[in-house]
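Form 12-C: Joint structure prediction
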Amino acid sequence: MTTYDDRLAAFSGRVLVERRPAPDPVNVPMIRQWVEAMGDANPRYLGEQPVAPASMMQAWTMRGYAPTDASAGAFEELVALLEEGGYTSVVATDSELDFHREVVPGDHLSVEEVVESISAEKRTGLGAGRFVSTLKTYRDSADEVVATQRWRTLRFRPAEPAPEAVLRPRPAINLDNEFWFTAAREERLVVQRCADCKALRHPPGPCCPDCTSFAWDTVEASGRGTLYSYVVAHHPRHPAFDYPLLIAVVELDEGTRLITNLTGATADELTVGMALEVEWLRADADLTLPVFRPVRPREH
Amino acid sequence: MGSLSGQTAIIGIGATEFSKASGRSELQLACEAVVAAIADAGLRPGDVDGMVTFTAESSAEIHVARNTGIGDLSFFSRVPHGGGAACGTVAHAAAAIHAGLAEVVVCWRAFNERSGERYGLGQASRPMDTNADRAAYSWMTPFGLSTPAQWVAMFARRYMHEYGATSEDFGRVAVLDRARAATNPKAWFHGRPITLEEHQASRWIAEPLHLLDCCQETDGGQALVVVSAARAKDLPHVPAYVVGAAQASGRDQHMMTSYYRPTISGIPEMGLVGDQLWAQSGLRPADMQAAVLYDHFTPFVLPQLEELGFCGRGEAASFVADGHLELDGSLPLNTHGGQLGEAYLHGMNGIAEGVRLVRGASVNQPGDVGNVVVTAGTGVPTSALVLGAR
Ligand SMILES: [Zn+2]
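Section 2 - Result
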């Protein structure tokens, strides 16, 4: 049975584009247009003995704009075979030109393209694809080779756009809570403390409810606490979370409580009052959150 | 000026149908309810000079007034904190009338809460800014705690832990509400009672809350007309006097997540409301012949009974199981079917049921109701009323 790879391999050495003469001989008007467009002032191109710029090699043999028969040749056959494999997109990757002699007005060139190789499937940034290497041979009317061009294209299967990662809902950061989330990014669990009466408070706020002081600092929590209450969330589902989702209120050893997630335990292993310790969840590049796991017995 | 008690009365009630897809604008629902309530009061739109609604309401008073032919307004206000506002609208109306700021005040709430913006879907994807209200969500939504059911579930788990209550204890509230709704033709769940087994078998939403612990979502509108006691005597319906009206926010209050208080098995703001009601009215819990308690989620009905003094702390589960809340019990509850059974109208339909109970016009009238206590949203700054026949 002929595999897909065999069918592709059969193209190696095959003439992809039959030898095709350039529509016009090499001529001064086209050279003039080219060097003007390119801004190339090299006097050799338009001097007493004009020489065509090497970079024009492909230009002499290009097809015109008129429609051509697109159904017949080996090239179309290869394109169809690649499309069958899902390689529907193309990008040119390499072009190595090798010049045998200079081309001058009056030369009537032709080009022929032969497949050298088709690679196995490669992973690329654009998607999985195969490199198709061909050799284009440029000859003059006497069949002398004036240049060769090793031409490589990547025929690829466009990568599925990566599903956009759904992030956890963003905290609304403002002047009153920014310090807490900044500390969390450094994996520090802090609790706001009144700078005057030293009362701890969470969630934080600008003013101490015990003494009305607006001065505050923070203390770093031990990361130990107990399970005060919890919810096993099932519906509705937010795409950033796995369900059932364990959400808890944890009472820290320092006395304040916070809402968090539980990890390292299933719902039926939870009991109100159980000992917990902090673990850091790097939810995404911008958000690190404290979550809590049961304190393992051996650590007592 | 003296006490507010008995100085005003709810004299008109009006509502749209309760549905899942009204097919009409929220403004139209508001206008329909307001027009119906004014007509029920035996008044004309031009008589209205005060309007009160929720901050959550999408239709400002100027739009409702302009569309319904309500003319000059001398008083308007709004009450914040979602369903906690419900009875607060009547409190504002009563206070304004008592203070001489207005004579006829309409209170209303209307929304397409099912076909439009559904609260049950949570706050995770709401637009963000950095004001204090929004920043408060920073402690919840990054951890996936974003829906009302989840917020209540956290309280419920702790209540179960402290008092030994069970999911069945919550379920009995749902069964009771649905039994009342089953015989209320206006209720969404008319003709559809549930059993405790069905409650237990319903899927988890946020453990320990089953689906049947959570109220429905509703499109609709409800309006009430408040006038002075003197004016009420000249109008067609039996007045439902505002015997008590109170709002409260407790110490260390948060929006649905007051998890940082010394204990979270109670609802201190509801206790504060109760204290005011009893002080204003000179009445006691035993003087209530019925109760309409806010029931967006069953677990919060239990601590309401405790905070208002109908039973002791931790005793609500057995109070319910003992049948006190049945139609023939000592405190018939949510005779319209509650928000679990009739409609979720942010508590405003419960006030209308309180009015019907005083009128003797509930579809599940348990006998003469001299006084009924009506509460508003729980877990938020809240409010409550005592409506009476006196
Ligand atoms: Zn202080």
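Section 3 - Comments
The interface with chain A takes residues 120-125, 128-132, 134-147, 150, 153-155, 157-158, 161, 203-207, 252, 257, 259-260, 264 of chain B (CB under 8 Å). Residues 8-116+216-388 of chain B form a domain with the Peroxisomal Thiolase; Chain A, domain 1 fold (CATH 3.40.47.10).
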